[in-house]
Structure formats: structure tokens, C-alpha cells
Amino acid sequence: HRTPGAWGHAVTCPVSAETDECLTQPCRNGGSCRDLPGAFVCQCPPGFVGVHCETEVDACDSRPCQHGGRCENGGGAYLCVCPEGFFGYHCETVSDPCFSSPCGGRGYCLASNGSHSCTCKAGYTGKDCAKELFPPTALKVERVEESGVSISWHPPEGPAARQMLDGYAVTYASSDGSYRRTDFVDRGRSSHQLRALAAGRAYNISVFSVKRNANNKNDISRPVVLLTRTRPRPVEGLEVTNVTASAISVRWALHRIRHATVSSVRVSIRHPKAQEDESTDVDKGVDKFTFRALLPGKRYTIWVTALSGPGGQEHPTESLASAPLHVWTRPLPPANLTAARVTATSAHVVWDAPTPGTSLEAYVINVTTSQSSKSRYVPNGRLVSYTVRDLRPGRRYQLSVTAVQSAGGDQLHSEPAHLYIITSARDGADRRWHREGLPPRALRTRPAPARLPELRLLNDPSAPATPTQAPRFSELVDGRGRVSASFRSSPGRRVTVRSHAPGNCSDNPCQNGGTCVPGEHAHSCDCTPGFKGRHCELACRKVPQPCTRLFSETKSFPVWEGGVCHHVYKRVYKVHPDTCFKESCESTRAR
Fold first, then answer.
1. 233 vs 446 pLDDT, higher one
2. How many Å separate Cα 21 from the centre of its chain?
3. What SS3 class is residue 199?
4. CA angle centred on 110, ends 108 and 116, rounded to 5°
5. Is the pLDDT of residue 7 over 70?
6. Which residues, at least 6 apart from 73, have a Cβ–Cβ distance to it below 8 Å?
7. For 148-186, how does the pLDDT look when each residue is reduced to its tens digit (9 = 90+)?
8. pTM of this prediction?
9. Residue 486: helix, strand or coil by DSSP?
């Protein structure tokens, strides 16, 4: 008999008809039996189940091991064998946080104190680099200077993309790798100026969208890039070296160090009435240029710029233009300058009228001998002739006439037109003149002989043998030994005969086309233009050089004294910069 509350204690019970079920030990595998009225219950140990604890349970059926851990069953319990990188009863703890690649292919994982952080690749942001970071758009160059470049861009499209970023990173580096710098620009701005750059260099510019992180490792987008060049330094020392009626010559200078990046030079010219400029590119080794085929007496503007870059399809960068030069071409010199009449003390010269449309202000007449030079300013732009007086008999003179044109308060002087003359002696009517480029001639006017029985007019067989009246004629003698006679009684009829020179000029000792002139004791040589010397053996050329000319002008002023008008004469001198020519001679004899 079992007294309630005495479970587990041995007692002596009276014999009863009821049987104790636990006496037969129905529970197996160490299970504990509990007797109930008319039944029993087995309390099974871990790992066993069933009415009698007869069935063994597999503890690994529930797969308790995580992260690929291997479960081992034993004695109703299990054991997790963890893979590399995990530990714990169920392999739930990760020893390498980056083992599972939490950043994916969008970033790089960094483990620290059992946790990880992601360093995102360009174009991604967020804790696990799951968000895309978009770059700016429409990057362009606004302005280029010698030491700086101004750029601008547009923010990424979409409000979410704009709200995500914190600013922009602008990186610029020289093409040769010698210079690199990065500037940060706030997201409220979309432009930036690059400073402290070298003149004439190429730079690679990249702009990124930036998202700042707490670990100070900013996320950036893919870049937008462009290549640009700074301006080279402008050329130095631009000046005009020569000006003619149809050409202007200029020159400049390039410094070896300051202009090291210059690849070529562009020279430009513009006429005030022209719609487009004319430009020519020359190599950096050239330091001078001549503009040709220009109009006479016109104002031109000239400037020069330096270029940096390879050229071709890539347009080079142009420097700031040099200070422009405003240059007037010279007017045309007087055409066909001729000596119409030459006496012992004067010479009357004539020339063609200027071309229509040319507004001349004055002429300058220069009279030059070997000992002196005199200049006369004649303020008459329509003048076509002039008489030079106060000459000396038997002298050789060089006459030059220069046209003067007014140009914006200044005066332009043409190249002088030259004429060579020889005045006649006092005791005769001998006159000579010599135009540049023609052989010297002597003009004599004399009465004809009383009778010329032996003289016949050429190509006139019907002429009488003896003229009834002695005609007057002009005899023209030049250095080539030819005589041309013109008779007034027979206009249009000329006769040419050969004259005989004295013996001392028979071998013509004058060189280079010079003409031998006989004298009493010795001969002399009348040289052609461009040659000098006793035997015309020196070849002379004119070298241009800057100079100033002094002109005098005489004006009369009426003055009343006691009711009588008198004229007072006043001489005014003017100084004008011009280009003079220095004569340089070299011997033509064989050495």
C-alpha cells in the first residue's frame, strides 16, 4: 500500500489485489517509471522517447549548427564543428566579418573588432555600398588665362541624387605629371577656378560627386574629365622694321624660358574697312614677317599672338594679343620724274599727277650734291612740276621728290623719286640730266652750220641735196657715242651718226656700264646708278635706318604800318621721323 506523498520511499503495504506496474521496470534506457492508478509513466532521459523510452532521438535533426557548421550526435546530445571564421555552441559567432562579402562587388570590406566597414568603389555609397552615386554633367571650360582656368558643370540629374551628395572634388594635374592638386567645392556651387597654373601647359581636369562618411573616407562618383591648356605668355618687343607703299615688315622676340611652351606664332593684320582679319602662323623659330600686297597710304592694324599646343585637330591655345600697332603704308612716290629744262643755275622737273582718290598734302624736294643737301617743303598736294633754282654751273646734282600725305594728324612720306642732272657751264648752253636707271645724256642747243651739203635725212631720198635755209637743230650726245639731231624745219625727221671719242677713252676703262668722259689731261667715269669709284668698280647699296628730316616752310603775314601794308615772312621748321638710307659700297673686282 502506498501512502500519498510518499513517492520514492519504501513502505510496507498490505497485500492487495491491485498490482504495482512499475515493479516490472517497464522504462528502458534509464528512464524513470512513475506509477499511476492503473497505469505508469516513463520519464525518458535526453535523447530517448517513447512509452518505455525505447526510441533514441537524433539531436542533429533540428540542424542547430549555423554558417555551415557540422553537427555530431552523441549520447542524446549534439556538437557543432564550426568552419573557419566562425565559433560558438551553434557556430553563431563570426571571427572574420568580411568573410561573407557584405560589401559585394561594389566596395572593399575592412574588419575591425568583430565588425566590418565598406570602402565603396567609385560610383557607390552607403553602409554596404548599396546606393549608386551619380557624377556631375556638362563639364566645360568657361575662361582660360595664363595662370588659371575657370570651369563649370551641372549637378547630377534627379533630386534624390543631388540630396545624397555633399559636394564636388575637382582634381587637376599637368600632362607631364609634375603638378597635381584637388579642391573641394560645396554642393551649392557648380563652378570653380583653378589657380597657380603654369603658362602654356596642358592639364587633365576631373570632377567627382562626393559623399562624406563618418570614418573620413569619402565616397566619390565616376569622374567627368576634360583636357585644356592655359594661355602662353604673349610675345615681346613687337615693332615695325620697315614700311613701304605696299609692304609692312615687323619683328618680335620670344624668351627661351618664359616662352618655352610656345609652339608657333600667329601674325595678324586688319584694314579698318575689311570685314575679316588676315592671319598667318609661323614657326616659333621665326621672329619677323612682312605683309605684302598692301594698299598705299592706308592705315593697318597689326598684332601678334603666341600659340601653344600640337595643332592639327587639337586647336592650340592662343595667348593674349600684343599691343596692336597702327601703321600707315607710305603713299606712292611721284611717277615719271623728268627734267623738262636745265640751265646753268636752275632745273625744272615734272612728274605725273597722283592717281585719283589719293589726297596728298605736300611735296618735299631735296637737292643733294657731294658737299651739301637742301630741302624744300611745298604745301601743295596738286603740284606736278617744280623749278629748282640757285644751282651752280657745271655741277652734278641729285634731285628727289617725296610725296607727303596727311594721316590722322601726322604726315606720311613716300619713297623719294630720284633724278640726276648736270647743270651747264656759264659760257655755254650745255645741259645734262640723268634719270635713275638710264644712261647719262648731254643736251646742247646750238645754231646749225651755214651749209650742210653732206648731211642727208634718213629714209628721205627725195630731199634736196642742199637746203635752201639753214635749219636750227638740237643735238643730243650720250656716253655711248651716239648723236641724235632734231631739225625744227623738218619735224619728225631725225638723223643718227657715229661720233669719234678721244683716244684716251677708246678702251673704255669704266666698269659696270660706266661711261668714259674725256678731259684735258685725263678721263673720268660717269657711273650708272648703284656704282661708284674712279672706274665704277664699287657696287653700292642703300641700307635703311631710322632718322629724322628737317623741313622748312616760309609763310607771309600782312602787317599794317602807317596805313601801308607790309608782308613779314616767317620760316617754320618741322621735324618728321622717317627712314633714311645709308650707302654701303663693296668692290666688284675679282679677288
1. 233
2. 118
3. coil
4. 115
5. no
6. 58, 59, 60
7. 999 999 999 888 888 888 899 999 999 888 889 999 999
8. 0.55
9. strand
Q: How far, in Å, CA of 580 to CA of 375, rounded?
A: 14
How many angstroms separate the Cα of 206 from the Cα of each of 47, 99, 121, 168, 519?
A: 69, 35, 17, 10, 91
Pick from 54, 533, 550: which is nearest to 525 by CA?
533
Q: Is the pLDDT of residue 443 over 70?
A: no
Give just the sign of the alpha carbon dihedral 151, 155, 157, 161.
positive
**What is d(CA 327, CA 324) in angstroms, rounded to the nearest whole number?**
9
From the list 291, 147, 341, the residue with the least C-alpha distance to 229 is 147
pLDDT value of residue 477? 43
Q: CB of 326 within 8 A of CB of 248? A: no
Amino acid at 326: H
User: Do residues 349 and 385 lie in contact, with contact meaning Cβ atoms separated by under 8 Å?
Assistant: yes
Q: Supply the pLDDT for residue 75.
A: 66
For residues 422, 426, 427, 431, the Cα torsion angle rounded to the nearest 10 degrees is 20
Class of the 338-435 domain?
mainly beta
Which amino acid appears at position 320 of this protein? L
Q: Can you tell me the distance from the alpha carbon of 15 to that of 374, in angstroms, rounded to the nearest whole number?
A: 177
CATH number belonging to the domain at 1-57, selected among 2.60.15.10, 1.20.120.1730, 3.40.50.720, 2.10.25.10: 2.10.25.10
| Furthest C-alpha separation in the chain | 212
pLDDT value, residue 312:
60
Cell 618735299 maps to which residue? 364
Helix, strand, coil share (%) of the chain residues, nearest 5 = 5, 45, 50
Residues 6 or more apart whose CB falls under 8 angstroms from that of 102 comprise: 109, 116, 118, 128
Architecture of domain 133-229: Sandwich (2.60)
192 or 36, greater pLDDT: 192
CATH architecture of 60-94: Ribbon (2.10)
